[in-house]
Amino acid sequence: MNKPKMSTEKGVPSNSRVLMLLSQLERMNGDAMEKNVAMTRQVTAKILHLIQTQEKSGKEVMSKGSSGMEVILASLENTQDVQTILNILYILSELLTVGRGRRAGVFVSKGGTGILFHILITSSKELVPSEELMLQLHSLLAKVGSKDRKFGVKARLSGALNVTVNLIKQNPQNSKLLLPCLQVLRVYSANLVNAISLGKNGAVELMFKIIVPYIKKSTSLLKVALDALGALLKSKTNARRAVDGEYVPILLALYLDWHRNDTRHRHMLIRKGLLVCLRNITNIKLGRKAFIDADGMRILYNSSTECLPVRTLDPLINISSLIMRKCFPKNRLPLPTIKSAFHYQLPHVPAVGPVAQLYSQPPGVDDVVDESDDNEEADADTENDTDNEEEEKEQRSLNDDIETDLNKLHPKKSLGRPFEELRVYERFFLELSEDFQGYNIDSSKTSSTTPSSVSLSSWSASTQSTQPIIVPRDQALSPKHVPALSCQADCSPTKGISMQPSLFAPTSTLPASLNYLELDAIHLTKEQDHKENVHIPSADTQTSLSSLNFTGSFSQEQVKEQELSHVLESVSIEEQMPREAREVKQEGPSVNSTRHIQSPLLLGGITTRRVGGGGSNWGSDCGSEGADDEGGEGAVLEVPDTSLLLPLHNPDLYVEMVKGTHSVPQYAEVAYPDYFGHVTPKCREPLLERVYGVQRLKIFQDIERLIHPNDILDKVVYDLDIPSCPVIEGNGESLKFNSQFESGNLRKAVQVRKYEYDLLLNSDINSNHHHQWFYFEVSGMRVGTTYRFNIINSEKSNSQFNYGMQVLMYSVQEAISGRPCWARTGTDICYYKNHFARSSIATGGQKGKSYYTMTFSMNFSHKDDVCYFAYHYPYTYSTLKMHLSKLEALRTSQIYLRQDVLCKSLGGNDCPLLTITAMPDSNSNDHVCQFRNRPLIFLSARVHPGETNASWVMKGTLEFLMGISPLAASLREAYIFKIVPMLNPDGVVNGNHRCSLSGEDLNRQWQNPNPELHPTIYHTKGLLQYLAHIQRAPLVFCDYHGHSRKKNVFMYGCSVKETVWQSDIKATSSDLQEDLGYRALPKILSQIAPAFSMASCSFVVERSKESTARVVVWREIGVQRSYTMESTLCGCDQGKYKGLHMGTRELEEMGAQFCVALLRLKRLTVLHNHQHLLDLESDIIGTHTKVVSSPTTYVMEEDEPSFLEAIDYSAESNDEDVEPESEHGVEVSENSNHQDHQSDSETNHRD
Ligand SMILES: [Zn+2]
Cα separation of 345 and 366, whole Å? Predict the structure, then answer.
């Protein structure tokens, strides 16, 4: 017998009557209680009375430090007298009614629940159990049930489940007793094991006896019964029971009855309860079948449509749409196979990996939806206790991909290949041995240095070597297209710019007077440069001068500001270009005047191609624009004059470049946007505001296809799998599609309704998935009509298209009217899981995966326009070659620029390698030494072809590095830049999203690249290994990427310390010795670049990323500052660009700012300004605790705000919810379950 002491005896006012009574009760606890039943009844009745009448009494009993609850519970436990028990239950009921959950929590913590169950069991054994006792016990259990995490287990172990069920069975009409019993049943059923046990005991059928058609009274009873039933039906066994009992049509009929009769929407919760039951039953395949058989689709579709105008009924519509989506019959994609439409024969198939898997598949496995995917016959409910669900969830939210092996966390230089083998890379580093004796780079102003000589000499050096280093084709073009700019040599600004090192090397002894002299010289030079080289913006003269004036106390901030504005201007539309500049710019074949070209653009002797809808020729259709040519051959096309705005662009040169590009489908066409070029529009492009209910509306339109199948055309209008593609000769009723040009990606287009098209993207070559990137042409459109486009085989589980991102469109009509640009467009954009799926075999043993729909609507402004749509601003391999060729023209006598071909890609395309630095001031020993010893910066980009933004950032970097600004000159003086601007040319050319021709993600091959299958990675790594071997490992390595799921620009780096912090591994302090230098560059970027966000950066090493460039270069080459820089495909949610899309201007600006940040880094490290560096770093450490950077590279749910509209991506049965949903390093599954990254690691990450 428990005899707790009333701890309130002392120190509590003795006039507290309730406490005195409690003390009395306590003294009677035990034997006295049995002997003096009347007394106990009396005391408990008095206590009850006090608590009922005086609020303070209850407070005194429950006050902190009081043992009132213990005494009450002990008495309850000790007494056998029903009246006393009832008294105490009444007391408890009064006490627990107030104080919200806290008092119930105290009750539970003192073991109250167990005592109640004990009494319940004991009393149920009586011949005639007291109804009042049962009522009170259940009322109290209902009150505390949700507060006790072990409630379900306690109930089951005590045997209380059946007591409650039997009570309900025996008292079907006793609504007073029924209500608390059902309430308790509802709590019991939340535990899955209980639900199964209750189901065996007939609880499901019991609930169906209680729920009835529309009535006005006792609705609360009905509501609780529905809730309990809903909970019971979460068990698959119970769901099957409900199907077998043919309850699905009953539920639907009940729902319809309530829907019709509850006209004032007073019983929404009952209607919702009925839907929840249906939702849970349809988690099993049998349930979905029963739902379809009972005409559930039509019933829910019609009722939901009627609910649409009433906003308060949204929850009903949302659950209905979820059920309908789930039950929508799963279908395979309308394709003969999900393997790429193009085939490329690999030299050999690797023994393991995704390609091996693909090749070993029996034919046709991807053609069916695997029935076993949702076959529940075998899978019984798991007998796990789920009372601790919350705890489990907390556990799972930890990032279990984190690297916890300390050995792997410590960079270990490994040279891999023997030096003799690495020696072949020596020729890519001529600058490290160049003595310049053959050059006249004397500081004399009459220097006759020809800027191209360096390049030529290096080319000849390359060609002499035995390795297949191929002189790029553009060399052949250079006399015509890339004239050498030699004029500025006369007034060589070399000396002037050579002052720049003095800004960073205080030892410089240049007299001040000389500085001024030199400034004059620069002034003249710049003027002249400016007149003769249109790539220099007009404001530049001033910029250069004013920045140079800071010589002594050089203000980085100011220069930076001007520098960045310079960058901005250089890519913006400037009409005030001096007239003479226009003329000077005219070089090679004229491109800026109206002229005849063959329309459309074709290579290789084909002279006509019919474009445009309605069977008419595009050339004649745009005759209204001026020219008129019915013939269709050589239609008049006014080529927009972009030469002033796009100094690196030249349409003719582009076509030349395309001729040398090797594509698997052997494309012979050129897309107009790539030919004309893209000029950044002047206006800002805000993110699209999401319209309320847009997703729901789109889903309902999809469901209509099933409800009204006769309205569906299902007409294939484009199909790469059919040799005669495009299939449809336009009759004016359909749009025309095309994607057969470089980087194009569209496999099939199906006209589903008059103005609606389903589009399918092509898989990456040698793969059966990775589709996200799209780039295609549309023509034959009408004006004043809204077209809906659905890309139905998207793969990622979420997309920025749900968070404001719009698609990009390029209108040829706009282009020839002088606005050649990609513009953000499209309305009603959303992204959701659809009813297409592929088999588990095709996904490599996982459960079948659902696809996602990206839908957008479009109103075209021009009749018979030719428009292009793209996922992001296209940047083809031919564009890169054109830009590199034009970059030569930006060379001045101070710039050392060398272009090499690192290797051939698998598909036979050259992989360019650039070296940019400053020429030495002279060929004196000192200057040549300084030249050779500059630290190296190693940059790469576009390993992932779908991340075109990486190329635009790279373009910004390259243009900045080749610029004439003092900052650019300082950068070149400070570093040697080694740049591989496109690591995956084949992927880019062939319109892949993720992989190379080998069907693999090249950024997962860095640990062990294969020279045959991954040549670009193998040789880029070779360059780095060579550098490590000669003790010249780069100061910074950065690989540019694009991120589809996050906003802003950010970096991933590698830090032992931060990885250890984020995991639970034990590490000694010596393990954590680490220079914080890796944080300096991102920190600087967050200070100077408005799009950059430190909060999104992460420095954690994850296992699934151990074969990425960043981790391998850090671990094997020993580069501490080894990064991935991720630029959003969407826009920003912070800083100056908050709420705006990132355009090419902002991306290029980012590339320039990256350079500026490198210069600052130089200032911090080379100036030996350790104090400054320490300040910066202590600043970094100080703010670390405020989560300056992210603990993971995975996308977290809080990364995006939720909308008003309930977004449910996972319209799937429960069993599928736990399948891996993640793609490319992102986790947005609704239940935030942690998923197995390893199993899907090659698609899992965004690096
Ligand atoms: Zn990437």
Answer: 20
Residue with tokens 């009444």: 90
Distance in angstroms (rounded) separating the CA atoms of residues 165 and 914: 78
So what's the pLDDT on residue 32?
65
The candidate with the shortest Cα–Cα distance to 670, out of 646, 648, 649, 654, is 654
Q: Which among 1078, 1094, 1079, 1090 has a CA at the least distance from the CA of 1153? A: 1090
Centre of ligand 1 from the C-alpha of residue 370, in Å: 31
d(CA 563, CA 1169): 24
Whether cis (ω within 30° of 0) applies to the bond prior to 600 is yes
Side by side, which strands form the sheet with 936-941?
895-904, 910-918, 976-980, 936-941, 1036-1043, 1121-1128, 1049-1052
For residue 212, give the H/E element and its range: none
Length of the chain, in residues: 1247
DSSP for residue 763? P
- Predicted pLDDT at 496: 29
Q: How far is the CA of 1043 from the centre of ligand 1 (A)?
A: 7
pTM of the model: 0.76
Distance CA 1247, CA 1245 (A): 6
Asked if residue 885 lies in contact with residue 458, where contact means CB atoms within 8 angstroms, the answer is no
Helices (H), 1089-1169: 1109-1115, 1144-1166
| Distance, CA of 59 to CA of 57 (rounded, Å) | 5
Give CA–CA dist 592/818, Å, rounded.
11
Q: Name every residue whose Cβ is closer than 8 Å to that of residue 169 and which is 6 or more positions away in sequence.
A: 202, 206
Instruction: Name the stretches of the chain with pLDDT < 70.
Output: 1-15, 30-34, 100, 362-399, 411-415, 440-638, 724-731, 840-848, 1067-1072, 1166-1188, 1196-1247
Q: What is the pLDDT, as a whole number, of residue 652?
A: 92
- Asked if the bond preceding 13 is cis, omega within 30° of 0, the reply is no
Give distance in angstroms: CA of 530 to centre of ligand 1: 38
**pLDDT value, residue 448:** 35
Distance in angstroms (rounded) separating the CA atoms of residues 1144 and 679: 9
The two tokens of residue 626 are: 């001026």
Task: Give the DSSP H or E segment for 405.
Answer: none
Give residue 1011 CA to ligand 1 midpoint distance, Å: 21
Cα 802 to middle of ligand 1, angstroms? 20
> Mapping DSSP to helix (H, G, I), strand (E, B) and coil, where does residue 914 land?
strand
Is residue 134 within 8 A of residue 92, CB to CB? The reply is no
CA of residue 1042 to ligand 1 center, whole Å: 5
Identify whether 1126 is a catalytic site residue. Answer: yes
Three-state SS at 221: helix
Structure tokens of 348? 């050999």
Spacing, Cα 998 to ligand 1 middle (Å): 17
CB atoms within 10 A of CB 1197: 12
Round to whole Å and give the CA distance between 802 and 853.
Answer: 11
Gap between the Cα atoms of 889 and 481, Å rounded: 9
What is the model's pLDDT at position 728? 60
| Angle in degrees, CA 362, 835, 700, rounded to 5 | 165
User: What per-residue confidence (pLDDT) applies to 80?
Assistant: 84
**Helices of type H across 910-965:** 925-932, 948-961
- Pairing state of beta strands 1121-1128 and 756-760? unpaired
Residue 854 Cα, ligand 1 centroid: separation in angstroms? 21
Which helix (H) or strand (E) segment is 940 a member of? strand 936-941
What is the bridge-based pairing of β-strands 775-779 and 849-859?
A: unpaired
Q: How far apart are CA 814 and CA 92, in angstroms?
A: 77
Q: What is the pLDDT of residue 850?
A: 84
Q: How far is the CA of 852 from the centre of ligand 1 (A)?
A: 21
Of 1126, 1177, 1212, 1223, which residue is the catalytic one?
1126
Amino acid at 73: L
- Give start and end residues of each alpha helix (H) in 311-450: 314-327, 354-359, 389-396, 406-409, 419-422
Other CB atoms within 10 A of residue 873 CB: 21
